[in-house]
Write a structure and sequence with these properties.
binds protoporphyrin IX containing FE, Cytochrome p450, 517 residues, alpha+beta, iron ion binding, heme binding, oxidoreductase
């Protein structure tokens, strides 16, 4: 009996070891170069170090191994790409073979998870969510959201005025986080008034991005079964992990809203104009007929194809938009402000544009379209700091060949966006310079060829891009009308970059000097 147990145990251990060695040696067996790391983890441990952002690490390897190389990260086998033609082929032309994204198992199984959201979904589930969500970011809706965003901008200015009255330097990153949290809280979470500098949810959300959860991410990606188990458990005990805590808060908010709407309907009260994303998603419907193939896919997974979102899906979307909209936009604003403070000529030119185009206390939606130089500043900022490049990934769902490279089903693709954005062959010898003017003639850079990807590319391009631009333009215009941005003793030049999900400056301390005193 004991020999049998021993034999079974040894066989089990050997099988597990062989499985992990098989994955780890995947690229070696195929003769694809790249950093190897260690069995089990591959290079995942190196990608998850908060102090040396993983997305910059990819750039170091691209220099060493060239624009196409292979890594293993946990149980993922990933092809890293910094070749514009291949990017375009995978993200646009062969999208049908690459419609999934690279996910950590703790984010749920995109095939079966009922709570799946747009960033994680794939196949027909993604298409349905994208079709239903797209109108939320239409010009008409953005126009409606403008007054909320402007209100938050003016509220932030009041705080800036208070905190800088004695000439102190302030950390713009934390101020921008207050701003984006307030905007997204009001447009996605049903928050009715400003909660700036007293919003308890902000700490939970900061913890998601800045807290140290790397060990958990590592374990879940190396042992996917543990990842799914942790996911199930944390939905039961959400207080243990910030992302799940936030999810459960979102769930309560959506449930309460649905109850109120139902009560109103029962009393014969007509629903108001939508107040926020929750209303928009609860109202949202798609007129698109789902093809037979889609119906079969949903039936296989015991799901009903509905043209409206289920309550779980509404929670998932609002949760995602909160996460996606909070950090990215605050970071982009922080980088832009830093670049303006360290490039006074650009700041002066932008001051002139803002003074000319936005002379009144309130800034109209149409006036934002006239801020052309501001647009160039924001585009150039995101070229130098493509902060959300981790999302520029795909999962191959049908084996194929791309520019002579065979890619098997199940392989992940991760773009090395930073190397593309800093390639002198594309941008010229002044690639390291902050030069918004390079965007004045955009025909020089064809955005659709796979060079410039701050918001990704193709059908899965960032859905919130226009909202992000609107928020940034509106707030920056208000700040620049009032203040000159200057570096101080606490400003880190160059910036110290950190982060394992998004790539963030550690802080951005600046002086804000009133212009018209
Ligand atoms: C400066 C701000 C932002 C940056 C730099 C950014 C960047 C990105 C990137 C790189 C992707 C991946 C695109 C791809 O795979 O092709 C993405 C996807 C996405 N972003 Fe953003 N984003 C920003 C703001 C926002 C905002 C404000 C929202 C919503 C409120 C948002 C929601 C999303 C969603 C839902 C996706 C997934 C789209 C899909 O898979 O269909 N983002 N974003």
């Amino acid at each position: 009996m004991s020999i049998l147990i021993l034999t079974v145990t040894v066989t089990a251990i050997l099988s597990v070891l062989s499985y992990y060695l098989w994955i780890w040696s995947y690229w070696m067996r195929r003769g694809v170069k790249g950093p190897r790391g260690l069995p089990f983890v591959g290079v995942l441990d190196q990608l998850l170090v908060h102090e040396t952002p993983g997305m910059l690490k990819l750039g170091e390897w691209t220099k060493k191994y060239g624009p196409v190389y292979g890594i293993t990260d946990g149980t993922h086998r990933t092809l890293v790409i910094a070749d514009p033609d291949m990017v375009h082929e995978i993200f646009v032309k062969q999208f049908d073979n690459f419609y999934g994204r690279k996910l950590n198992p703790i984010q749920g199984d995109p095939e079966t998870d009922q709570r799946v959201h747009l960033l994680a979904a794939q196949g027909h589930r993604w298409k349905r969510l994208r079709t239903i969500s797209a109108p939320t970011f239409s010009n008409g809706n953005l126009r409606k959201l403008k007054s909320t965003v402007e209100d938050c901008s003016l509220e932030l200015l009041r705080h800036i005025e208070n905190k800088t009255a004695d000439g102190q330097q302030i950390d713009m990153l934390s101020f921008y986080q207050e701003f984006t949290m307030d905007v997204i809280g009001r447009i996605a979470m049903g928050q009715t008034d400003s909660q700036m500098f007293r919003n308890p949810i902000l700490d939970v959300v900061r913890d998601i991005f800045c807290g140290n959860h790397n060990n958990l991410m590592l374990i879940c990606q190396v042992f996917p079964a543990i990842g799914s188990a942790v996911r199930q458990l944390t939905f039961k005990y959400p207080d243990k992990i910030p992302a799940f805590k936030l999810y459960s808060l979102m769930e309560q908010t959506v449930t309460t809203r649905m109850r109120h709407r139902n009560e109103d309907l029962k009393k014969g009260i007509e629903l108001d104009e939508p107040h926020d994303f929750i209303d928009l998603f609860l109202n949202a419907k798609t007129d698109e007929e789902f093809e037979n193939e889609a119906n079969e896919e949903f039936t296989k997974r015991n799901m009903k194809v509905t043209k409206q979102l289920t309550a779980e899906e509404v929670v998932g979307q609002c949760f995602l938009f909160l996460i996606a909209g909070f950090d990215t936009t605050a970071l982009s604003l922080s980088y832009a402000t830093y670049l303006l403070a360290t490039n006074p000529r650009v700041q002066q030119k932008l001051h002139e544009e803002v003074d000319r185009e936005c002379p009144d206390p309130e800034i109209e939606f149409e006036q934002l379209n006239k801020l052309k130089y501001m647009e160039c500043v924001l585009k150039e900022t995101l070229r130098l700091y493509p902060l959300a490049s981790i999302s520029n990934s795909r999962k191959c769902l049908r084996s194929t060949t791309v520019n002579g490279v065979k890619i098997e089903e199940g392989t992940h693709v991760q773009l090395d966006t930073w190397s593309l954005h800093y390639d002198p062959k594309i941008w010229g010898d002044d690639v390291e310079e902050f030069k918004p003017e390079r965007w004045e003639n955009t025909e020089d850079y064809n955005e659709h060829k796979g060079y410039y990807l701050p918001f990704g590319m193709g059908p899965r391009q960032c859905i919130g891009m226009r909202l992000a631009y609107m928020e940034q333009k509106l707030l920056l215009a208000h700040i620049l009308r009032k203040y000159r941005l200057e570096t101080g003793t606490k400003t880190a030049i160059p910036l110290k970059l950190v982060g394992s999900a998004t790539t963030s400056p550690k802080d951005v301390f600046l002086h804000l000097i009133p212009r018209h005193d």
